[in-house]
Design brief:
- The protein is α/β, with parallel strands linked by helices and 344 residues long.
- The protein folds into two domains: 16-134 and 266-334, Bordetella uptake gene, domain 1 (D-Maltodextrin-Binding Protein, domain 2); 136-262, Periplasmic binding protein-like II (D-Maltodextrin-Binding Protein, domain 2).
- The chain contains 13 helices and 14 strands.
- The protein has helices at residues 16-22, 54-70, 85-94, 107-116, 150-157, 172-184, 196-204, 215-221, 252-256, 273-278, 280-294, 297-305, 318-334; strands spanning 43-47, 74-78, 101-106, 126-133, 135-142, 162-166, 188-192, 210-214, 226-231, 243-244, 247-248, 264-265, 267-272, 313-316.
- It has a six-stranded mixed sheet with strand order 2-1-3-13-4-14, with helices on both faces.
- Helix 2 links the parallel strand 1 and strand 2.
- The longest helix has 17 residues, at 54-70.
- It starts with 15 loop residues before the first helix and ends in a 10-residue tail after the last helix.
- The model is unreliable at 1-35 (pLDDT under 50).
Length: 344
């Protein structure tokens, strides 16, 4: 099974020239793009979700430290709607390709969105060049749920169709539970509730039988509010923060004998390829400085302040982002018929 995480945060500190080469571009000191110092003004970041969510917190924690090295402030702009499509369409359609405009997206759900419905632009027109985190999907229930284990969920799902809260229909977590249902013969009906907060609320109030989300959102609430029953990754890296009645949540492949790849959310910065072609020196400056953030103690403090798990913070370069995007697209194509909103 393929592991798309990086072995360490320093594993790709090979210089931004290598990163640019992976992306398919060469950086030459003779380029006409070299000249004025970069950056000369603030950098705008397009975020294809609403303000105040996990992407917002993650972005602010990261750019709050990145600005020390890039010597620029970052201005986030939020474009929620259509499961991220609005933000991408706005970025690709209106943002100048001058390296002063970036996109901060969640590769998993957003690549799956393109599987369900192709965008108006070519996917080759932009490049994910720096992954910030790897957040595995989990199955979770409210603290007072009658389901103590994932086997309890499966047993009930074989008797009746269970309603499953999810933040987006096209999401790694959604695919995970649908794949389990198909494998084991349980019936699940996905209910997209638009965002992590609404998904958790739907489970806590009892309106939904259970939910699926990235682990960071669930672990922040703690086991006194939510209990985790299954992890869609190769291991439960958060241990007892994802547990139920003192038993840590098992992994999907280990428990069910499936062969699913890690179904994770992975937030990353993206840039238009035209911006790299026109200003390779600026792209180099961003890659050189972005690596320094991961080893800065202030970044860890900022992440922990948001109550997000530090274990999920893992850098990935353009090559790692490409491998992840291809993997999640492939499994999305495999389960595309199940991402229609119909009962399984």
């Amino acid at each position: 099974m393929t592991d798309f995480r990086m072995p360490s945060r320093r594993a790709f500190v090979r210089g931004s020239l290598a990163t640019a080469s992976v992306a398919g571009f060469s950086v030459s000191s003779g380029s006409s793009a070299f000249g004025a110092a970069f950056p000369e003004r603030n950098i705008k970041v397009y975020v294809p979700t609403r303000e105040g969510g996990g992407a917002d917190r993650n972005l602010r924690a990261f750019t709050g430290v990145w600005k020390k090295y890039l010597k620029s402030n970052f201005e986030p702009s939020f474009y929620p709607g259509a499961a991220g499509r609005v933000g991408y369409e706005t970025y690709m359609g209106k943002a100048p390709a001058d390296s002063y405009n970036l996109l901060f997206g969640n590769m998993g759900p957003e690549m799956l969105n393109w599987v369900v419905k192709k965008p108006t632009f070519s996917l080759d027109d932009y490049l994910y060049f720096a992954r910030v985190d790897v957040d595995p999907s989990v199955v979770f229930v409210r603290a007072k749920s009658p389901f103590r284990t994932i086997d309890d969920v499966i047993a009930e799902g074989k008797k009746r169709t269970l309603n499953v809260a999810t933040s987006r229909l096209a999401h790694p977590a959604s695919i995970g539970i649908l794949a389990v249902g198909e494998h084991i013969g349980a019936k699940f009906n996905l209910i997209p509730l638009s965002g992590g907060k609404n998904t958790i609320a739907g489970v806590v109030t009892g309106e939904m039988d259970f939910g699926v989300l990235p682990s960071g959102s669930v672990s922040k609430k703690g086991v006194k509010v939510l209990r985790s029953l299954l992890v869609f990754d190769e291991k439960n890296r958060l241990g007892d923060r994802l547990s139920s009645f003192g038993v840590n949540a098992p992994t999907v492949n280990g428990h069910f004998g499936t062969k699913l790849p890690p179904l994770v959310s992975a937030r990353a910065f993206a840039i238009q390829r035209k911006a790299i072609e026109s200003h390779p020196d600026r792209y180099k400056a961003m890659n050189d400085t972005i690596l320094k953030v991961f080893d800065d103690p202030d970044y860890k403090k900022a992440v922990l302040k948001t109550k997000a798990p530090w274990e999920n913070i893992q850098y990935g370069d353009a090559a790692a982002c490409k491998a992840y995007a291809e993997s999640i697209t492939a499994i999305g194509e495999r389960f595309k018929p199940l991402l229609t909103g119909k009962k399984s």
